[in-house]
Amino acid sequence: MSLPQAPKVGLVSLGCPKNLVDSERIMTKLRSDGYSMSADYAGADVVLVNTCGFLDSAKEESLEAIGEAIAENGRVIVTGCMGKEADVIRNRFPNVLAITGAHQYEEVVGAVYDAAPMPPNAFINLVPDSGLKLTPRHYSYLKISEGCNHRCAFCIIPSLRGDLASRRPDAILREAEKLIAAGIKELLVISQDTSAYGVDLKHASWRWKGGEVRAHMTDLARALGELGAWVRLHYVYPYPHVDRVIPLMAEGLVLPYLDIPFQHASPNVLRAMRRPANEAKVLERIRSWREICPDIAIRSSFVVGFPGETEEDFDYLLRWLEEAQLDRVGAFRFEPVEGAAANNLPGHVPEEVKEERYARVMELTARISAEKLAAKVGRTVDVIIDAVDPDTGGATGRSKADAPEIDGEVHLRDAGHLAAGDIVEVTVEDADEHDLYGVPA
Q: The Radical SAM core domain covers which part of the protein (predicted)?
């Protein structure tokens, strides 16, 4: 038995030693993935040109190198410092396959994967294209950024992970495509602040599938939705532009589900938390969202017992929750975290008061949840199957309103013929505070 030939990559590295190190890292990654290196243009399936843009003369040298690679091979990917001047490169060489900037190892390697795919072979491809996953095979988390620009008083994420650093939209979409090709049916979009996606990239656009995609939450959500899997948005701060995502939910491109960490409702507590205190306007927007997309499910989390939280503040929160009628709610008792500014605030709430307030929040939100789920009895809902018990014929899944691990479930009877990852219509027969019960329609 003969093994398939691995694709060969040619590499032209220009500029300073830092560029050379970048080239070495790219080459190391490609070799570890099974690619071979070519010493000449003729033997390469694709050629990488790592450019320098420090001086005008260096830019001209880089453009000449790109031109030579195109003339000798024709399949060229450009990376390095001149990647910031993509328009200049494309105006002169419109047939370049892809252009990435300096240090963008993930993007340039991804471009090689697209231009010269590794032939499938169990002896060569020890890791699937979708990567190794700790989640079930039918759903996957999709991280779109790291870090956060907020400085909430109770949080130390920026000190741990830094400021917002968004991934390029084409790299995210490329990963999503590979996940779906591997059998993923549901993409759970995560970050520290999904609504802020692309702010650090100045919402620039990148080439994608013959067009362009902008580094912006709404554009990315639409592009992900067009790939055909369920797309669920987590950690969405209620910025004004979130309103433009709701029509995508009404269209069926994105699941009608928003995970929004409100944290509290009292203006006094929100100010102490260093979070926007516009709870009244949020209620108006929730009503507007439900008018556009009646099936939208909103989940959130709240902190009780934050330093300085009075009984009036807590009562305000309860009244707000009653009016907001959120579908899924999680609550947390405030805990000091080393390094958090909230530790130094006055008015720390006694533990027994935290416990009492926590219990009251959970009692209220459980009642609201039970009422909203009871209203679904008799309806038909789409459910993604998570597990099947062939012995009992039962199955467990989730509706579009339920994220894994944190929300409710749908328990099915007469479902032994189903498999994990199936998406089926289910007639809802019963409900409790958190879960639905039904049968395949």
A: 134-371
